[in-house]
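Can't paste images in this forum, so I'm doing it all in text. The chain is below; anyone willing to post the predicted structure tokens underneath?
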Amino acid sequence: MNPAQPLSGAAVPALLERARALVAPALRAAVGRLAPPMNTVAAYHFGWIDAEGRPSDSDSGKAVRPALALLSAEAAGAAPETGIPGAVAVELVHNFSLLHDDLMDGDEQRRHRDTVWKVHGAAQAILVGDALFALANEVILEDGTTEAARAARRLAAASRKLVDGQAQDIAFEHRERVSVAECLEMEGNKTGALLACAASIGAVLGGADERLADTLELFGHHLGLAFQAVDDLLGIWGDPRSTGKLTWSDLRQRKKSLPVVAALTAQGPAAERLTALMTADAKKSQQEFDDFDEAEFAVRAALIEEAGGREWTAAEARRQYDAAVAALHGVAMPDAVRERLLALGDFVVVRQK
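Text version of the structure:
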């Protein structure tokens, strides 16, 4: 097999299903520790119950991060179960960020359902997010081992970067100019850091040395940037039936995502017209912006594409994916595990466009 070619995509559903089967019971048990009503609010967020408290089979995510954590443990020669506490902790931190992001961004829908703040109020969204964050640290440290302490340090660093990235993202919405380098730094923090943690935390729990853990972290970082580039494309041109969000979602929120920044920093008439429109947009109130009709967002999306923002972002996704693949080939691990990591990376970036 060509080392740059991952396993067939048919292998990925089995990896994701294994992650769900191994991690879901531990995740439910951890969330069950929360005091009422936070436990039921969290259960609603995860899709385990509906807004009335009835059992639900709503999609609660692709399980990519848990799958990475389990494969990470196997990369260190440990059993996949060794990575379960890390997988649970990463999922808790990820969902802490989603609860707060939805509130800060004013998103009313996630995975085709009303968001927590919309159903249970802003206070519960904040409190449950905080509780999940605290619970993540509790879960990872429970064993009291040296490996658990090493894993907790990586989780804490990733969490700080995630918050840094969210703060940068919000700040960018109010700035007229943002460079591509700044945008990549923000997305590396907001998305890449936690995916990097997921890709390395299982190995740390499995006793991996720092070289293997750092290499897996680098793989996850580049994979996270590739994933976010694809997500940025979907945030403008994605089908609401697939994304669960409104059309032109990122444009409605004035996000300085990669396609937008790449287009604004380009040369030519389309970039100039886009700059003029978005400069004027920045002076509008949120209510005025909310009153835009579909055609106005469509014009901005068309200008971003004409200025090259869509093409550049797709190419950047490929560059980051290639960097992730290169990192993975820089360290020894079982060939079967490497192939599964590559297959999962291919699924995340290529097959979800």
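Confidence is low (pLDDT under 50) at residues 1-6. The chain has one domain: 11-349.
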